[in-house]
């Protein structure tokens, strides 16, 4: 599918990491001085394998001696590396972090104190369950992994778009992942949790119920990576210059608000455009609508660790914002796409254990295990020297006596051991005099070695109830529909009934409805729902900072006879709002307007669908007559309406809406304007000048989907 043609001119920030990567970037077009072998010798013919021939009867066998041919084939044979064991499918982008509010009271980290710095970042978004080639819009958790290239070393926040996790102790990770990944006997299903192993496991693992509520909510079918919150999930610590320690959780809140697809859209998009999310990210960045998130922290002083009814080190729990408010401290912006997917997005490697001085770990047992696992997995994926790869290397000096191993890049002069007589590094004692060094916090520990969890870890349902109670009516219905959809995919009645029992621990109405839909036994009793709610859990709590069509993808439908002036006015208005515009015509070759002037659409109706857009607009003109009789166009409009999208119609195009939609229920506004923006929850009139804001209000409002 083509990208937006009308790109707004923009530039990315020239950060230290951008310059660092330039060292290893070649431009295959500009620097081409002719092809060479990998060892640098010029080659003349890379299309014909060297053959034995008698010069008369044509070529005979291909010769093994042909180094060029062997090299070409052999390099190709070894192009693949193991995909990530989870989060295999992902999309990345470069950007930067700006700190707006220094926090010396919590941490001495340079990156959290120096507001004059621009810290380069790389983010990789991902799905969890599917393989590298799976679809983007499946129901799944999304990875939200951020690498900060700070002046004090790389800091990775390897987060998700859901603030809690399925399990409390890292030792259970292989079990939950085996259960959710495709079944071992037939490798089914791809990119879905809708299968018996997953439900078998979670029905026997009550700690996963809170996360299940989030995964069955609309959070797991985001509209875009740009409209997701990011959460560090685990509890980390911050240490200030006085040696005081604070527990901390990290948050990223999108400027555009939190938005999701509707399930029908997500299902269709999986086939129509499996790359929907990565295409969307690229289109926004290339069009200058840079995705932005506020970076915020929640902080609990060490002395208050035990003041909560839940354990603040339990990754299956949030810290409700009513109890621990978020403190916004900065923003992250994505402004540059990778030049090449493999060396950047595929080879980027995150480690929760990569922190910077002033940031520390907690005893969160999920985090402790993660700190082992990420480094370990990079060894099998990328090899021991993975930190030297361009995308992974820090922008600050690296100096130590780690040596050798496969694919070592650096050449280090001097000794390879410490201590040495050359004094090649500052004496270790100095490290503790300055705050630019990692210091081990002198945490007191005591006790006996045992395999156990904290007592508060045993409560699993209060926050699952809190989340469910906090959803709007329509979000609750979506959650019930999602569970019913998933549990429709298997016949094991014992698993269904066990799940119903678990759901009854959250809410009886929820359990009863799912039981009825999924053919389970209606629950007789459950845990009483405490009825508490939080203001910060429903997606409706996260509208955009202000209504906007910025980066929203909008289709303009045209056929022969469209009104050129209306079309151009519309396009200009939408572009000035920084929307991403595609003109979709009855054919891709030239379509003639009523004035006789022709345009070339970007796409045609038959080759595209409304699902790829946030809104559809139709200028007036004679084309309406033919469009009203075109089944595909009617389907475009009805489908967009069904998916709660704004549809703008101008002049004669309002008649097209009347043919396609049940407009008798939708009253036009009183000023008798001949233009309308409609969607399933309202109609507003809109003349071209006010059209973008009308569209923004309806598109972004999300309403009662
Ligand atoms: Fe991960 N996770 N994870 N995870 N995770 C990986 O590391 C692991 C967990 C997350 O774009 C792997 O480099 C364990 C929570 C993201 O490259 C692996 C546990 C959260 C990514 C791994 C968890 C995440 C990964 C596979 C339980 C949200 C993709 C490839 C203790 C806070 C990073 C890799 C990217 C990837 C282990 C749980 C997020 C195997 C053992 C909780 C975003 O190391």
TrEMBL record:
Pfam family, one: Catalase-rel
GO BP terms, alphabetized: hydrogen peroxide catabolic process; response to oxidative stress
Keyword field contains Heme: yes
CDD domains documented for this protein: GATase1_catalase
Active site: 87, 160
Functional summary from the UniProt entry: Catalyzes the degradation of hydrogen peroxide (H(2)O(2)) generated by peroxisomal oxidases to water and oxygen, thereby protecting cells from the toxic effects of hydrogen peroxide. Occurs in almost all aerobically respiring organisms and serves to protect cells from the toxic effects of hydrogen peroxide.
GO molecular function: catalase activity; heme binding; metal ion binding
GO cellular component: cytosol
Domain Catalase core: 36-426
Enzyme nomenclature, EC number: 1.11.1.6
UniProt enzyme class: oxidoreductase
Name used for this protein in its record: Catalase
UniProt-listed PANTHER family: CATALASE (PTHR42821), CATALASE-B (PTHR42821:SF1)
PROSITE patterns: CATALASE_1, CATALASE_2, CATALASE_3
Organism: Serendipita indica (strain DSM 11827) (Root endophyte fungus)
Keywords: Heme, Hydrogen peroxide, Iron, Metal-binding, Oxidoreductase, Peroxidase
Cofactor(s) annotated in UniProt: heme
Keyword Metal-binding among record annotations: yes
Catalytic activity: 2 H2O2 = O2 + 2 H2O
List of residues binding heme: 374
Protein family: Belongs to the catalase family.
InterPro entries: Catalase, Catalase_AS, Catalase_clade2, Catalase_clade2_helical, Catalase_core, Catalase_haem_BS, Catalase_immune_responsive, Catalase_large_C
């Amino acid at each position: 599918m083509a990208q937006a043609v009308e790109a707004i001119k923009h530039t990315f920030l020239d950060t230290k990491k951008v310059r660092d990567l330039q060292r290893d970037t070649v431009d295959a077009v500009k620097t081409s001085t002719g092809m060479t072998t990998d060892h640098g010798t010029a080659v003349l013919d890379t299309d014909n394998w060297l053959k034995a021939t008698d010069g008369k009867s044509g070529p005979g066998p291909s010769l093994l001696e042909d180094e060029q041919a062997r090299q070409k084939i052999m390099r190709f044979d070894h192009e693949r590396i193991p995909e990530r064991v989870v989060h295999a499918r992902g999309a990345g982008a470069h950007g930067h972090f700006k700190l707006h509010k220094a926090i010396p009271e919590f941490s001495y980290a340079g990156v959290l104190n120096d507001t004059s710095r621009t810290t380069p970042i790389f983010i990789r978004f991902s799905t969890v369950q599917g393989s590298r080639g799976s679809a983007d819009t499946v129901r799944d958790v999304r990875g939200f992994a951020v690498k900060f290239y700070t002046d004090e070393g790389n800091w990775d926040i390897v987060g998700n778009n859901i603030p809690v996790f399925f399990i409390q102790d890292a030792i259970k990770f292989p079990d939950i992942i085996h259960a959710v990944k495709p079944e071992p006997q037939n490798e089914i299903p791809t990119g879905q949790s809708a299968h018996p192993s997953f439900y078998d496991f979670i029905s026997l693992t009550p700690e996963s119920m809170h996360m299940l509520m989030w995964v069955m909510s609309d959070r797991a079918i985001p509209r875009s990576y740009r409209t997701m919150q990011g959460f560090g999930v685990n509890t980390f610590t911050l240490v200030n210059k006085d040696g005081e320690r604070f527990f901390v959780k990290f948050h990223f809140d999108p400027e555009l608000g939190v938005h999701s697809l509707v399930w029908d859209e997500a299902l269709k998009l999986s086939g129509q455009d499996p790359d929907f999310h990565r295409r969307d990210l690229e289109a926004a960045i290339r069009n200058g609508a840079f995705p932005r998130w506020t970076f915020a922290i929640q902080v609990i002083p060490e002395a208050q660790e035990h003041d909560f009814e839940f354990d603040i080190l339990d990754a299956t729990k949030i810290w409700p914002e009513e109890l621990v408010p978020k403190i916004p401290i900065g923003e992250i912006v994505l402004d540059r796409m990778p030049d090449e997917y493999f060396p950047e997005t595929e080879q980027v490697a995150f480690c929760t254990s990569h922190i910077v001085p002033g940031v520390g770990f907690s005893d969160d047992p999920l985090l402790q295990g993660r700190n082992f696992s990420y480094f370990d997995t990079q060894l099998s994926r990328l090899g021991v020297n993975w930190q030297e790869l361009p995308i992974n290397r820090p922008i600050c000096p690296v100096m130590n006596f780690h040596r050798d191993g496969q694919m070592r890049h650096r050449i280090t002069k001097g000794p390879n051991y410490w201590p040495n007589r050359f004094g090649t590094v500052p004496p270790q004692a100095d490290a503790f005099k300055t705050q630019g060094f990692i210091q081990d916090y002198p945490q007191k520990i005591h006790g006996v070695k045992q395999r156990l969890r904290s007592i508060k870890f045993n409560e699993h349902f209060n926050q699952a109830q809190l989340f469910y109670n906090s959803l709007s009516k329509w979000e609750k219905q979506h959650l019930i529909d999602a569970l019913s959809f998933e549990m429709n995919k298997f016949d094991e009645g014992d698993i269904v009934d066990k799940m119903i029992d678990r759901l009854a621990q959250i809410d009886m109405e929820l359990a009863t409805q799912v039981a009825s839909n999924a053919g389970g036994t209606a629950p007789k009793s459950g845990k009483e729902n405490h009825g508490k709610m939080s203001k910060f859990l429903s997606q409706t709590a996260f509208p955009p900072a202000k209504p906007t069509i910025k980066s929203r993808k909008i289709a303009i439908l045209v056929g022969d006879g469209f009104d050129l002036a209306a079309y151009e006015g519309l396009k200009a208005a939408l572009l000035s709002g920084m929307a991403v515009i595609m003109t979709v015509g009855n054919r891709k070759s030239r379509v003639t307007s009523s004035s006789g002037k022709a345009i070339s659409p970007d796409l045609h109706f038959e080759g595209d669908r409304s699902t790829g857009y946030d809104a559809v607009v139709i200028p007036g003109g004679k084309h309406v007559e033919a469009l009203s009789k075109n089944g595909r166009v009617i389907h475009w409009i009805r489908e967009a309406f069904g998916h709660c999208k704004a549809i703008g119609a101008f002049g004669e195009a309002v008649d097209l809406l009347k043919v396609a939609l049940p407009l008798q229920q939708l009253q036009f506004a009183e000023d008798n304007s001949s233009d309308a923006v409609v969607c399933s929850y309202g109609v507003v009139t809109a003349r071209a000048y006010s059209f973008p804001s009308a569209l923004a209000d309806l598109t972004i409002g999300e309403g009662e989907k």
